[in-house]
Amino acid sequence: MNWGKFQRKVAPYVFISPFFIGYAVFSAYPVLHAFYLSFFKQTGIGTRKAFIALGNYGKLFQDDRFLHSVLVTTYYAAGSVFVIVPLALLLALVLSAKFLKLKGFFRLLFFVPLLTSSVVVAIIFSLVFNERYGLLNNWLLAPLGLSPVRWLLDPRWVMPSIIFVGIWRWTGINSLYFLAGLQGIPDELKEAAVIDGASRWQVFRHITLPLLRPVTLFVVVLAIIGSYNLFGEPYVLLGQETGPSDSGLFMTIYLYLTGFRFLNFGYAAAIAYAMMVIILVWSLLQLRLFGVFREA
Amino acid sequence: MITLRKERALVGREFSSRLHIPKLFEMSLRIAIYLLLAAAGVATAMPFIWMITSSFKLNAEIYSYPLTLLPRNGTLLNYIRLLNGSDIPFIRQFGNSTIIAISETSLALFICSLVGFGFAVYDFRLKPPLFVFVLATMMIPSQVTLVPLFLLMHTFGWLDTYQAIVIPGAINAFGVFFLRQTMLFIPRELLDAGRMDGCSEFGLYWRVGLPLSGAGLSVLAVLFFLGSWNNYLWPVIVLRTMTKFTIPVGLATLIGLYKQEWGMVLAGAFLATLPIFILFMLGRKQFVAGLTSGAVKG
């Protein structure tokens, strides 16, 4: 074999090796190490590990704070799926109206909230939600004659507030996904239905919506996974805490506090694995629900 | 062709006439849509506008009635106090963010393009399983690695350093996938011609692969830069001292320090967002393409 041929045979492996080496060190090993750690009790760096088998996993089911964090995250996920996603679809339908001027401008405008860091978002919304000097209470509720709401101080209002931030931040990008899906639906299909006497609602219900199924699946899965990843907005918005009566204790916040404030590494690893299982189950459930496996 | 268009026009006319909707209804629907969009637009922009205008207000004015959009007595005091570094080393932190974001983006682009090139233009025996493996790694949520990766950084002695953020962040399966898709369109004849001229395989990557994937690279660059600049969770875990903090971490501590100093916090939030806004204005197409590619988490 000459040099050129040899080089061609080896080259692809050399090209792809950086990913696999990097992944092995910075992801695969940590993933396995986390699994190993989850069977031990260890608090603090360099302290002795005590093997407790499934102890950490057993503790998950008796830990009220953990169970509460599952509830909080699920609350937000439900808010994402049943509020943000439909709003995004509505926005996409509005933005795809044929007569609309300034389409490009509006698309970009609704996109901008995505560009900011979660910390900046939290800073901005601290002012929006401020009980006495906040925008919401003074400029929205007061003119409507409603009494001020203690957004971030009342445990019942903390989650609606954080979902409100989610609406502001994520509706725009999700509507762009729906827009892409809408553009993929041929006009002829809708026109044919109208000629056959279908009403606007019927066209939407029986043509547009079914054809948007793949996009909807994608958006819903992203929204749910996003709920489990949510950290910066609630954590900073609630003063780097978990809110009154833990009302904003998201799972990633609980993982962070357990691992890096209480340095309870073993238990944090178990929480992380529980999160992974939940996220995988959600994703598979979604795929099933939307009938992806039926076609396969 | 012409008849087809005519038919289309006819169908179109029928489309609107068959709706049997009075003109009045159509008109009010349009007005309602415009009103809805205007309201949503104001709601989207107002928090930003409020942040910017309030950063030029004294704290006493932020906490006073009635709320005014424009500052009554505009002041630069918040910016002066922020930039003179007496509370947090803001300029230093801005520099940290810049260095980390640029090096993480460059390194990630380099690695992803190498690997993407390998997967796109060669056929080798282990290619299918290895590529499936790359895709499968995207299924694993990053939370799983937080604790052990932190311990690993501790073992390496990397805590409180740039590389603790830059190097793990440069391994990105989505980037590999994205650039592999881009590079599939590189004509193999072009590569063979290069080989005939005595170009090495790495030379082919450097002189053919990279220049031909400019569009994909710029989209990914925007995505990586934005992710790195805004990242909060991992930096807050591995960075320990004020002078090493990135902007999001620094700003979060500023809130913790002074609950009532919102003017300064808002000034910092505005300055933290400014580079991204400028980049966005320059590369709107890349931003939209990158962020709609499905890689956004959160």
Would you mind describing this structure in some detail?
The complex is a heterodimer of chains A (296) and B (298). By secondary structure, chain A is mainly alpha-helical. Chain A has helices spanning 3-37, 55-62, 64-95, 103-111, 118-129, 135-141, 155-183, 187-195, 200-211, 213-229, 232-237, 251-261, 265-289, 292-295; strands at 40-41, 50-51. Chain A has a single domain, classed as MetI-like fold (Orthogonal Bundle). The longest helix of chain A is centred in the first third of the chain and has 35 residues, at 3-37. With 298 residues, chain B is mostly helical. In chain B, 73% of the residues lie in helices and 0% in strands. Chain B has helices spanning 2-17, 23-54, 59-62, 77-83, 90-121, 127-137, 143-156, 163-169, 173-183, 188-196, 201-212, 214-230, 233-238, 247-257, 262-282, 284-291. Chain B is globular, with a radius of gyration of 26 Å. Chain B starts with a helix and ends in a 7-residue tail after the last helix.
Features:
heterodimer; A: about 300 residues; mainly alpha; MetI-like fold; two-stranded antiparallel ribbon; about 75% helix; B: about 300 residues; 16 helices; globular; disordered N terminus
Topology of this protein?
The complex is a heterodimer of chains A (296) and B (298).
Chain A: H1 3-37, E1 40-41, E2 50-51, H2 55-62, H3 64-95, H4 103-111, H5 118-129, H6 135-141, H7 155-183, H8 187-195, H9 200-211, H10 213-229, H11 232-237, H12 251-261, H13 265-289, H14 292-295
Antiparallel strand pairs in A: 1-2
Chain B: H1 2-17, H2 23-54, H3 59-62, H4 77-83, H5 90-121, H6 127-137, H7 143-156, H8 163-169, H9 173-183, H10 188-196, H11 201-212, H12 214-230, H13 233-238, H14 247-257, H15 262-282, H16 284-291
Helix pairs in contact in B: 4-15, 5-8, 5-9, 5-12, 12-16, 14-15
